[in-house]
Amino acid sequence: MILTVTPNPSLDRTYEVPSLDRGEVIRATGERMDPGGKGVNVSRAVAAAGQRTVAVLPLGGAPGALVADLLDAQGIEVARVPVVGATRSNIALAEADGVLTKINAPGPELSAAEQELLLETVRAQSVDASWIACCGSLPRGLAPSWYAALVARAHAAGTRIALDTSGPALLAALRERPDVVKPNAEELAGAVGRPLATVGDAVKAAEELREMGAAAVLASLGADGQVLVNDSGAWFGSARVDAVRSNVGAGDSSLAGFLIAGGDGPEALASAVAHGAAAVQLPGSVMPTPGDLDPGAVTVTADVPVDRVLREQVS
Asked: Which GO terms describe its molecular function (predicted)?
């Protein structure tokens, strides 16, 4: 079982519009409602793969109830942490030409008691977990050190923990030695404070995160692939993608694939790449099933192409 923790989940409403005209009444041509948040997406990807997952979520108000109902309909167990504030509702406006405009609400502010209840719920639910995946930004009220406290408690209980966050929360958590961290290229560059121009730059930055405390680093480089750096060395993985339809949740799908495959070594990297490549070829935030995967399109090598220039360079 993979336990996910999303401290700031959301109810995501997407409206399809012909175009976005400021100051005008815009009539949507389509709409959908999804449970949102990076950890939520990891749970959705794990469930789509046919594996058991439990999502720990602070939920409040009518939006929180809807998030729980939507996840339940997808066969995902929810460990609900009641909070006074209403779960945030995010809005996405998808124009006909492919441009996506997102409005993300800040979310509720968690009290000290709610913060402690969230940690205690994770502890109680993690008894049968092979991994805990902690993902996304922190809501108001939680200090950047909150993830560090969660990593420390998980390790004290003997549970492996994967962390997908950024900024001060990532840097603070590194001192507690999370088992794997999963930054994208932008987050990796931000953590080391310099731009990334090549695959070699990304590997060096990942090695620096390991020096800061991460046991392993799984870094997504967008269309350029993924790198895994751990005690045994570095690997580079990439996949053939015929057509990109949506990259929403692709990184979360990759993390799910990595953990499903054991969360260690080149085999897990291959699974991460396969899941990410499948996700970008599906519409919206749809998560891939085993039938969507194409392992034959994936290449993983220890001969890392350090001089390869990244197509999406990060400053």
From this structure: 1-phosphofructokinase activity; ATP binding
